[in-house]
Amino acid sequence: MSADHTPPVTTQELASAAQLPLGFEDEGKRHASNEELADEVAAILHVDRERAAFIVAESERLYVNRMRERFSRLKVSERLKRTNPFLLRIRGAETVRDWATLQVQSALYASEEEAVGHLLEAIIKVCFPGAVEPALPDDFDFESVDSGDVIHGYQVKMSWDCMPMSSRKNLSNTIVRVRDQYRAEGKDFVGYFAPCYGRAKTTKPPGQEYITLASKEFWQQVGDGAPDYDVRVGEVCALLCSEFRSEVLDTLVPDLLDRLTHAAQPEIGNGDGQIDYAKLFRRVNK
Predict the structure, then answer these.
(1) In whole angstroms, what is the distance from residue 65 CA to residue 184 CA?
(2) DSSP secondary-structure letter at 92?
(3) pLDDT band at 10, cuts 50/70/90?
(4) Cα(217)–Cα(191) distance, integer angstroms
(5) Which residues pair with 145 in a beta bridge?
(6) N or C: which end of the chain has fewer CB within 10 A?
């Protein structure tokens, strides 16, 4: 899911970002326990308490724990090698802390987008009626069994345009192979590509072995026919991730910002906390 990766563009905004953690909106500490969150999730998605608790636990694991692991490996040498010095100067970064702020923002946004993608996958598997792990896991995220002996296999992606031509061909070839395997067991198989957003119509062009589902239709299937189930899932993502985002900002980001600034100062700084762009260009290209 595409996030806004645009950092502050003025020196004033960057200075504020250095004083307030990353310049994000003012967010306090968590205000709800996991038990309270599970109650809200159960009410929004119309699932039982056990499944709601699992979604909350997965959200915490994917969001907080994964970001903690990734941030712990966020070494200054790696960040410097990935710094675009041309873009950094255009955006008005003047101090080493400005640089650190932009690096942490970039890492957080990328981690956040990845976490939400995995969270959506977890929600889908929990909520989709009859969803099970695929018996033949090639390229499919889950299966469901229709009445009789019809197996439905789903490959889920964030966006409808996440499927390049090579992947489309691979998925069609996989479906032919899986269909033959199930046919040998006396079962039929139908393959689906399910984008979480951006697809308006359900289609199956000639030569394509899978059905591309309209995003709204897919979410209606996830919600057992409930209209606007995608809106409900969006509400759950906002609820959970805002809670765990606050935890990340409170516990991980301030320390990381300080460590990156301190470590990068001798590499790209001039001794007064300002970026020495000549040193930065030489360090990036080292």
Answers:
(1) 43
(2) T
(3) very low
(4) 15
(5) 151
(6) C
Token pair 């709204």 is at which residue? 216
Q: How far apart are CA 193 and CA 12, in angstroms?
A: 45
- How many residues are present in the chain? 286
Residue 188 tokens, joined? 């039929």
Query: Residue 76 is encoded by which pair of tokens?
Result: 């200054």
Q: Which residues contact 253 (CB under 8 A, 6 or more apart)?
A: 21, 22, 104, 108
- What are the tokens at 206? 């000639």
Instruction: Give the tokens for residue 70.
Output: 């990734």
Express each pLDDT in 151-176 by its tens digit: 999 999 988 776 665 677 888 899 99
What is the DSSP-derived secondary structure letter of residue 23? G
**By the 8 A CB rule, do 87 and 72 touch?**
no
CA distances from 51 to 1, 55, 58, 174, 240 (A): 24, 6, 11, 31, 15
